[in-house]
Amino acid sequence: MRKLLLTTTALAFAVTAAAPAFAQFNDRTIRVSNGVNADHPVGNGITAMQACLDQKSGGKLKLQAFWGGALGGDLQATQALRSGVQEAVVTSSSPLVGIEPALGVFDLPFLFANAQEAYQILDGEFGDMMNEKLEAAGLINLAYWENGFRNLSNSVRPVTKWEDFEGMKVRVMQNNIFLDTFQNLGANATPMAFGEVFSALETKAIDAQENPYVTIDTSKFFEVQNYITETNHAYTPFLFLFSKPIFDTYTQEEQAALRECAAVGRDLQRSVIGDLNKQSLEKIKAAGLQVNVLSEEEQQRIREKSMVVYEKHKDTIGADIVDSILAELAEIRK
Ligand code: TK8
Question: Of 33, 39, 145, 173, which is best to mutate to test ligand 1, by the most ligand atoms within 8 angstroms of its C-beta?
């Protein structure tokens, strides 16, 4: 009897060991869209994430990236995820405040002083809490990638103090906090989807827009602008969102691989974006644009003038959310 049991166990082990490798993975094509172009640092992240998925799934989980808003803008693509007709999108948080108002906290002007603060908040309990809210809206945030600190470009005049914004037609993301931040500075702020920005700048329908240097470079905005002002007025995260209706049909192993590899892509993207922003700024200067860096005093003036936006939007975002992130930042800065 004992011999029979040993033989059976050995046989069971042999069968398991011989089971096809990656049996818990299915051949899947994962469409992931973004509004920026493939030469943006998001492209670096996608490449690193795919290499990780190849190793974990034996090549069964394949990312199919769509660039330049080919599958629609941030909000449109995100809605497609919620209805289960698209797998993933790398989107800014800002256009999604209609889905989850708490995301607006990231749009408060001058909230983060540097990227390290942002990473600590996003990758910690605060980011997890936000992810729970997103999951309740049918969205799995696999990781916080980096859009980055936003700077102004315009075609009409140098901006070296907030009064220079007076009457300037500035495109902002579809988000009332950004709208109020620029209206409060005297600008004529216009909410607009990212995909419409280049042609609006080119036709002078708008004078200005604001984005990180890598975006001003890779989306070619610098080709139709004359002035840059380094304002660092807000840090926007990218969300690597996955459709919850689709994610729930994946095996535990597939879900774990996607989460782990999105974090690998995040870390790679964050590690290169600093240098790529510097390279983009050099390219923008070489193209002949005049670059102004706001003085510390002027940044402080704009920061103080913008604080009214916190009060105006605190309740819409959630007073507990705003108080919590400000308390965490105060702790980090001690
Ligand atoms: C790209 C956008 C962009 C954002 C904006 O899809 O809309 O200005 O900064 O990166 O998400």
Answer: 173
